Amino acid sequence: MALLSVIRRWHFREGMPIREIARRTGLSRNTVRKYLASKVIEPAYPPRKSPSKLHEFEATLTNWLFRESRRHRKQRKTLKQLHRDLMSLGYTGSYDRVAAFARGWRQAQQEASLTSGKHVYVPLRFAPGEAFQFDWGED
After folding, report:
1. For each successive 10 residues of the chain (139 residues), what is the average pLDDT?
2. How far is CA 127 from the centre of its chain?
């Protein structure tokens, strides 16, 4: 984003030619022209569409991770053991991919537990003079 604003400032405010901007930034002249012609603030790249080797085993791994998270700490399987179990089912990918998936799954579980609202507590303590109680009795 900063680069695009610098390119626009150089060209429109300071009147710098496209060739000089291309030389200073290391971009091609066509790229500089494209950035100047478009109204885009930051260039966006399309997301990757290549499925990983873990893609067809994600449901199984998610179920295993959920099951293991419910067990006591000493009875849980490690990620290396889960990776070995996946390999016995036909997974040919690396351990790192499984570990990255497990990290993402745990992060999502923690965020879900924080936003679930079951740990919400609102204390009913007020500073003097902040809240009043009245008794509208019929005495």
Report:
1. 84 92 92 86 76 91 95 94 96 94 94 72 78 73
2. 40
Q: What is the per-residue pLDDT for 138?
A: 75
Distance CA(11)–CA(93), nearest Å, equals 49
Cα distances from 22 to residues 10, 12, 27, 50, 71, in angstroms, run 11, 15, 5, 33, 59
Instruction: Provide Rg for the chain, Cα atoms.
Output: 29
Amino acid code (one letter) for 19: R
Q: Single out the residue of 16, 25, 26, 106 nearest to residue 61, CA to CA.
A: 106
For tokens 């200073």, what's the residue? 24
Q: Which two tokens stand for residue 6?
A: 């610098």
